[in-house]
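can u do me a favor
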């Protein structure tokens, strides 16, 4: 017995009418299709705020992302900062200017075991605690 596909060769719609055989034609589309037409009552009931814009998006020129550095990264890069002229070794500690290095904020991730005097625009409370526990200080 020939298969249905073979039997329908040459027929334009394969016995399914004009639109029923195309994708989700018989059910009126997929997903949210037709909400303004056949699904109008469903849209009014379940999605009353479907049309229009809500909320706001700040202009990207106004949004400024902070360039941050963790306490552990500061510890790892101390010698590099000295060679680049961004830090000065003072006895057994260091004095670092993170604003010159291009950082806006000091975060408290990791540990530090060297006393460091840090100059930075912002510092988290955790970072401040770790720096002061190691014998250093933060100037903003």
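np, heres the sequence
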């Amino acid at each position: 017995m020939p298969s249905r596909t073979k039997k329908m060769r040459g027929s334009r719609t394969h016995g399914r009418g004009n639109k029923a055989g195309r994708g989700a034609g018989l059910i009126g589309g997929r997903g949210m299709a037709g909400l303004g037409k056949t699904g109008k009552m469903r849209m009014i009931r379940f999605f009353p705020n479907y049309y229009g814009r809500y909320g706001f998006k700040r202009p990207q020129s106004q949004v400024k992302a902070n360039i941050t550095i963790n306490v552990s990264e500061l510890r790892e890069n101390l010698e590099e900062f000295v060679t680049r002229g961004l830090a000065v070794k003072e006895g057994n500690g260091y004095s670092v200017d993170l604003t010159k290095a291009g950082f806006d904020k000091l975060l408290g991730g990791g540990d530090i075991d060297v006393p460091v005097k840090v100059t930075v625009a912002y510092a988290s409370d955790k970072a401040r605690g770790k720096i002061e526990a190691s014998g250093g200080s933060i100037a903003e």
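The chain has six helices and seven strands. hope that helps!!
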